[in-house]
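User: Please fill in residues for this 64-position structure.
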């Protein structure tokens, strides 16, 4: 017996009872505008993106 079988047995029946529209609405529900990022997630994301861009530009300039 697979270890995922009991977990799927608990998750799938409630999910299959919902219509497609209800599943879509549940996917779009959030606690905030960007709840998946958390309180500081967006700022951290942009800082990391800028740091990576600076690193790439630095490496390109040093190669020339």
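Assistant: Residues filled in for all 64 positions:
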């Amino acid at each position: 017996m697979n270890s995922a079988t009991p977990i799927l047995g608990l998750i799938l029946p409630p999910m299959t009872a919902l219509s497609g529209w209800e599943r879509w609405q549940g996917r779009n529900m959030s606690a905030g505008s960007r709840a998946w990022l958390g309180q500081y997630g967006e700022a951290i994301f942009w800082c990391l993106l800028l740091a990576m861009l600076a690193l790439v530009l630095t490496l390109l300039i040093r190669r020339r």
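For context: The mean pLDDT is 76.
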